[in-house]
Amino acid sequence: MSLLRLAENPRDLIAGIRVLQLLPGIGPKRARQLMELIASSRGDWRVWDDAAVGKAAGATWPQLLDVLRQLTAHPVPDLASQVSLARRFYEPILQDKYDNPVRGNGIWNRSSSWLRGSPTGSRC
Question: Does residue 52 or residue 30 have the better pLDDT?
Fold first, then answer.
């Protein structure tokens, strides 16, 4: 829900911090800085295009920006499409963060399970 709230209102500090802190490598301080950047630009997402988020955020940062652009495109996607887009974006992040506590601090190489011989590709 926070991702949808942030797309609707880029100045929503609480929603923004919740969204950003789920990304690998972004903690409370950096999340607040990024939200202050949005506030100073009057809610213009383009200010985040050049934001330095560090290596840990990796591919998730451009993916987040892409999702936000899709959620705010005109015409606005229907609610079911918005929820589906948010779910697809967050699924690997949440699986890595909560279903894989050993690796827990970042998106890991999904192909590594195949290298271990797992026929399903599932994480153990």
Answer: 30
